[in-house]
Amino acid sequence: MPGLRYQSRILLLALLAGAPGTAIGVGLVWAQGYQLRTEWTLTLLVVGVWLGAAFALRERVVRPLQTLANLLGALREGDFSIRARGARGDDALGLAQLEVNTLAETLREQRLGAQEATALLRTVMAEIDVAILAFDEQQRVRLANRAAEDLLGQPAARLMGRRASDVELESCLSGVAPRTFSGSFAGRSGRWELRRSEFRQGGLPHQLVVLSDVSRALREEERAAWQRLTRVLSHEINNSLTPIQSIAGSLLDLVRQEPLPADAAEDLRQGLGVIRSRAASLGRFLSSYARLTRLPPPSSVPIDVRPWIHRVAALESRVPVRVVDGPDLIVTADPDQLDQLLINLLRNAADASLETGGAVTISWSADPDELAIQVLDEGPGLQDSSNLFVPFFTTKPNGSGIGLVLSRQIADAHSGSLTLENRKDGRGCVAEVRIPRGNSGGGR
Q1: Contacts of 22 (CB under 8 A, 6+ apart)
Q2: Residue 171 has what DSSP assignment?
Q3: What is the pTM of this model?
């Protein structure tokens, strides 16, 4: 029966199942010796019951399956309102209908949730002041929100299907991301932050490009930075110029006296010594500022971590420096800048440990992505960590206030980080530097 349809096979099986009984019944009718007319009537009745039962069985089997097929077809078409009536959980067919009804309700709820989420996403994308565009593998625009329309000066209907090069966004699909750049587009120009990520739709790769205007934020930060710098420069320069001006005036009055007092030479010597001291202090401050603003981009080369840390640790002789060896590994970074970073941290740790007669410990560890270096001291710890990375802020009598700032700039230039906090296992503090093992940030 392979060539027959399912309902035909059911009918044929029903006929075959009833055929023996029907044959026996017809045989018994003809064996009784009834009149010919009666025998034919009974024969037709038996055969009719046989055929009717077979067709009824076929309908009882096929009709529910057709109903289930219609329900599943409705679900496939997205119509989740149709339900099977008379579904019961105490028989096999009713259980199947109940499962289909439950599936329909679940799909209805999921579609409603998806529609609500999609509506929310569209509202957010329409209202957010960030340009969002999606490009397919041929670099053609597949999605653009309202901010992207304003940025490119074209409606989304005209942007769809156009290549990135046609809308001057080809450079946004390559290079380092995230990054900040200056650019001019059809609708606007300024400073932009570019973020890019990949996703798949329909099994094909796509790129999502996000462009946010950071011009205003950068101007605010620049103005705040200039204000802070002006306050710092004014404070430090005035601290030196005020006593210089005062002492210079006193010395000028002194040399105008006729005749000169007996102790004039000593007063002149002391006054000029103060002027020289304050001028030297001002010179050191300006030199420190120049060092802070002239940090070049890292020139990255492979560095063997173990000999590097042991070499730098040997430079500090004021306090005992213990090196706890970590794994052997190579990082890609600027060796001169990393030397400066670690020397600054060691010097600060040694200064703190000298106050308490403690020691300094250096250790390192690594994960698949980063190298982590810890410098632990046994000093008095941090009293206030809010100003640690403020330029020219220092608690040391002869400190410049740029060591930690310069160290953090070096870590940032290597796409890493620098943190400083009090130790949890005893007194003192711990400085931790994290640097990517295969650094790509800022390298040449």
Answers
A1: 46, 47, 50
A2: G
A3: 0.43
